[in-house]
Design a protein that fits this description.
The structure holds two protein chains of two kinds. Chain A contains 19 helices and 20 strands. By secondary structure, chain A is an alpha+beta fold. In chain A, strands 11, 12, 13, 14, 15, 16, 17 and 18 form an eight-stranded mixed beta sheet that branches. A four-stranded mixed beta sheet of chain A has the order 1-10-9-8, with no helix packed on it. Chain A has a four-stranded antiparallel beta sheet with strand order 4-5-7-6, with helices on one face. In chain A, helix 11 (373-386) runs antiparallel to helix 13 (429-438) and helix 12 (389-396) packs antiparallel against helix 14 (459-473). The longest helix of chain A is centred in the N-terminal third of the chain and has 18 residues, at 2-19. Chain A is globular. Helices cover 77% and strands 0% of the residues of chain B. In chain B, 38% of the residues are buried. The termini of chain B are close together. Chain B is mainly α. The chains are: A alpha+beta, B mainly alpha. At the A-B interface, helix 1, helix 8 and helix 15 of A face helix 2, helix 3, helix 5, helix 7 and helix 12 of B.
Chain lengths: 621, 311
């Protein structure tokens, strides 16, 4: 009996100790709504995986934390690059920095980062056939395409089918990886030179993407396919505890980080539109202070809405984003935070997102596509006019966290045309009926039933497709909505079998080119032009625009491109989302950035405020 | 007995071949999308897709892909998850613990309660207390599992603070996170279990030997626990052993809603993400578990009831 009692005491003690070790409590905890897929920057490029990666890996540049529209600031580059007058050559001086300590290095001690590391990483990005990021350099850098072809010839037979892995670190690849590429060279230990075949104004944006971050070749050689779980970078944090399916990543301060300071400048205010400056929002209180402020941060995955919101209310999570279900519980009819939540120390921040949602018409379709010529165009125009995007925003975004879109480029993006307004993006049923009659289908008579493909099978997706169907019914067009899993949907779209489908596009980088390429003929499905729109006049303008620097001249070309799209209507625009972030009063310096929504190194936690709020049962005093 | 076990094990071979064939055919049919296209994401070119399809052997005829799959099974190498690029075998090993940490205690508690209540019902059959328990069991079954989850997370965990809302910690810390899922699992399973066991007990209690025992003046407690329970064990054992393989698979819904990194959540994730290596491995593992579960049931019969002989 005594033994049993002692055993019980031991077990209870161990349970308590195991569950409540204060040393292991994080300073802050943030949430991803989707699974993190790992730390290989060339394979895992979704927003959530990239969000985890940028805590550890660093690229040449990053986005200024506070300024909007987004601006680049040097990160692993020492300063802005030297750009040749013809805009073809970029020379970067690499910062004096070291990789974090890791068993992949001899003696476990991290070594200095060199320009050659960037060359190696970018070559790996291009060599691996399953890399999702080759598009950023395809056809751009001198000699890289030829090198890629050669490298892939060597790498392809080495493919490990069971592990689905291309071993760039294999001995057979050493010579290829060492082979010089004319346009991608380490001039010396700390100088990187990139030469392009034609001007590539978007290049600098790509240097802030996770595709172009630097990591040591030793990491790839040591961990091989397991590098997914073993990131080795130069960033402010390193990963302490992580196994891909545990839905929790523990980031701890990297003691060998090269350092950085909190920005001293923020976005100015705009009193006319009710925009408060960052200084007035208290976002510059830590200006010039050394980063990071948090020693230990947890990044957890909670895929379901209810537990995410409840954990936030309990103080377990420091920030969540709004969604349809949360909105109803948290906001008033006027779109303001409910007073009882404000009393619990919850704050809210509103920031436009760099995305667009739309309904796409498959231009390969014989009834509504290119082949139907003017009749097809009029049907698309009529459908676009019949579609009530305001009602959609009302129902799907609670009327607040989305604004009806009138073009493909979201606000806040370089090249955004504020007065762009597609003549077919306004809800006008009578005009739609007239256009349908002009097309030879009065009241929709003679038209077949259209298939509308939805990229989900949940209630929200169903409401969305019902809105589309009902809008079309108003002008006599019959629509049959189909629910799909994402893979089924993707397969139909990429296989050009989807007739009409709802989609969204989020910016890879904040430039109009990233949205306008979605209509470029040569990029038809399975590439990014999923509507398979093909207009030589548009393509010619795109070819001109893509090599132009942002400015009035380029804006003029963009206007012409938008005018062509307005008339051809390959998309019916829906909305641009607006991010509403809920965060706790103890989380300081938080400013939402759509492209990188988690920037832990800038955040600070007021521990005293946190203790005070939570000890009051969540009520702020 | 040995000959019987060997014979049953030999049955596994065509079963596994059949399961492998079905899995291979389903996933090669393209019903769930193209894995190559999925790997390459939104900027993929047709050439890139063709390149990766070739590397994955997806451009081969179905029988060659089936042969490849059998080769993988023979080597017991399930490859890597196409979504997470970690070894599927490691995912299964690491996922089994969290799954079992919910299902084993929950199943044990639910079975103990259901068997006890079924005996109680049998003793008071037709009376108010029996009816009340039966109504309660039907009510428990009628409530959607999502309602339990939502109520548990909102009221018990968030409002009352009795449990953790969501998450998991490896080691002893897991206990804090599995309490609520266990409780919900018990509520979810107790209804159908109780009704089944009650029927089994009532079947037994009507038997002649029970009447004879009572006529001989044997006490009601002895009748219930010695005679009825012992003879009612066969259907109970059948149900318990059949459910054992499912315990390894975890709970699809609970693991997903509570963020438990177990095999149930992993299976759901892999279905959503069309993670072929994980799905193939889980189908295979489950088929094997079912075969062994059935074998175990048959052997357990002979222990529970010496009249049963293995042919």
């Amino acid at each position: 009996m005594r033994v049993a009692r002692s055993l019980a005491v031991c077990i209870v003690g161990a349970l308590v100790a195991g569950g409540c070790d204060p040393a292991r409590q994080p300073d802050a905890r943030f949430v991803s709504i989707a699974e993190i897929k790992g730390f290989d920057p060339i394979l895992c490029n979704d927003q959530y995986s990239s969000g985890a990666q940028i805590q550890v890996y660093e690229g040449l540049n990053e986005f200024h934390y506070l300024k909007r529209p987004l601006e680049l600031v040097p990160l692993m580059a020492e300063a802005k690059p030297e750009i040749s007058p013809d805009g073809l050559t970029y020379t970067f001086r690499i910062r004096d920095a070291v990789f974090q300590d890791d068993p992949c290095f001899p003696g476990g001690k991290g070594r200095k980062v060199t320009a050659q590391d960037f060359v190696w990483c970018w070559k790996r990005l291009m060599a691996v056939p399953s890399s999702t990021g080759t598009w950023i350099f395809d056809g751009k850098i001198k000699g890289l395409d030829a090198w890629k072809e050669e490298a892939q010839k060597v790498l392809e037979p080495l493919f490990d089918r069971v592990n689905e892995y291309y071993p760039v670190e294999a001995p057979q690849m050493r010579d290829v990886m060492a082979k010089e590429v004319k346009g991608l060279r380490a001039v010396d230990e700390r100088t990187l030179r990139v030469e392009f075949v034609e001007p590539y104004p978007q290049f600098l944006w790509t240097t802030a993407m996770s595709y172009t971050v630097v990591y040591p070749h030793e990491m790839v050689e040591h961990y091989g396919v397991d590098l997914m779980n073993h990131p080795v970078g130069t960033g402010a944090y390193h990963v302490e505890d992580y196994w891909i399916f545990d839905r929790k990543i523990v980031f701890v301060r990297n003691p060998t980080w090269h350092g950085g300071t909190y920005p001293a400048e923020g976005a100015p205010g705009d009193p006319e539109h009710g925009v408060v400056s960052d200084a007035d929002r208290g976002l510059l209180k830590d200006a010039g202070k050394k980063l990071p402020f948090l020693d230990r941060v947890e990044f957890v995955t909670v895929t379901e809405s209810q537990p995410r919101w409840l954990k936030f209310l309990s103080g377990d999570l420091d920030r969540v984003q709004t969604e349809r279900q949360i909105w109803a519980q948290s906001m008033t009819d006027k779109g303001e935070l409910r007073p009882e939540l404000a009393a619990r120390g919850i704050k809210i921040q509103r920031e436009p997102m760099s995305d667009v949602t739309f309904t796409s018409f498959n231009m390969d379709d014989p009834v509504i596509g290119h082949k139907a010529d003017d009749r097809g165009r009029k049907i698309r125009q009529a459908m676009s006019l019949a579609y009530d995007s305001r009602f959609w925003v009302e129902r799907m975004r609670n009327g607040f966290w989305g604004v009806p879109a009138h073009g493909p480029i979201p606000p806040g993006i370089a090249g955004y045309v504020p007065d762009a307004d597609s003549p077919y993006s306004q809800h006008d049923v009578e005009r739609a009926k007239r256009l349908l009659a002009e097309a030879g289908y009065p009241g929709g008579k003679g038209l077949p039933e259209f298939d509308y493909e939805d990229n989900g099978s949940d209630t929200v997706s169903k409401i969305g497709s019902d809105i589309f169907r009902n809008c079309m019914a108003e002008i006599g067009i019959r629509v049959n909505p189909h629910s799909n899993t994402w893979d089924q949907f993707d397969d139909k779209v990429k296989g050009r079998r989807a007739q009409i489908f709802g989609m969204a596009w989020g910016a890879d980088y904040p430039d109009a080119q990233n949205f306008l390429q979605l209509f470029y003929g040569p990029f038809g499905s399975p590439n990014s032009n999923n509507s398979n729109y093909n207009n030589p006049a548009y393509d010619a303008l795109y070819d001109r625009m893509k090599v132009m620097q942002p400015g009035p001249e380029r804006d003029a070309v963009i206007r012409k491109m938008l005018a062509i799209l307005d008339e051809d209507c390959p998309w019916s625009y829906t909305d641009h989302r607006v991010a509403y972030s809920y965060y706790r009063s103890w989380l300081l310096n938080f400013k939402y950035m759509d492209i990188n929504p988690w920037l832990f190194k800038y955040y600070r936690v007021d521990a005293a405020e946190k203790a005070r709020v939570l000890s009051n049962g969540g009520e702020a005093k | 007995m040995t000959a019987y076990i060997v014979r049953r094990l030999l049955y596994v071979v065509p079963l596994v071949l059949g399961v492998a064939l079905i899995v291979s055919l389903i996933y090669n049919s393209g019903l769930f999308g193209d894995p190559a296209s999925k790997m390459l994401a939104k900027h993929a070119t047709p050439e890139q897709i063709a390149q990766v399809r070739h590397a994955l052997h997806l451009d081969r005829p179905w029988y060659q892909q089936y042969w490849d799959f059998l080769g993988d099974l023979v080597s017991f190498d399930f490859g890597r998850s196409s979504q997470y690029h970690v070894k599927v075998s490691e995912m299964i090993v690491r996922g089994a613990g969290p799954s079992l940490s919910i299902t084993v205690p929950a199943f044990t508690i639910a079975t103990a309660i259901a068997v006890s209540l079924s005996l109680f019902c049998a003793a008071f059959r037709g009376k108010a207390v029996d009816r009340a328990i039966l109504v309660g069991a039907v009510a428990l079954m009628s409530v959607s599992s999502l309602v339990y989850v939502i109520f548990g997370q909102y009221f018990l965990a968030h409002q009352l603070g009795l449990f953790e809302i969501h998450g998991y910690e490896r080691g002893f810390g897991a206990w804090r996170f599995v309490q609520l899922p266990i409780l919900i699992f018990v509520f979810l399973t107790i209804g159908p279990d109780l009704r089944f066991y009650r029927t089994a007990m009532l079947e037994e209690i009507k038997q002649d030997y029970v009447r004879t025992a009572r006529a001989k003046g044997v006490g009601e407690r002895r009748v219930l626990f010695h005679h009825v329970l012992r003879n009612g064990l066969i259907p109970i054992l059948t149900r318990v052993v059949i459910e054992l393989p499912f315990l390894f698979l975890g709970s699809l819904l609970l693991e997903r809603f509570f963020g438990i990194p177990g095999l149930g959540g992993m299976t759901v994730e892999s279905v959503i993400a069309n993670d072929l290596p994980v799905l193939k491995a889980m189908t295979f593992v489950f088929a094997i578990l079912l075969v062994f579960g059935n074998l175990l049931t048959d052997i357990a019969y002979t222990i529970a009831d010496p009249r049963v002989r293995l042919g």
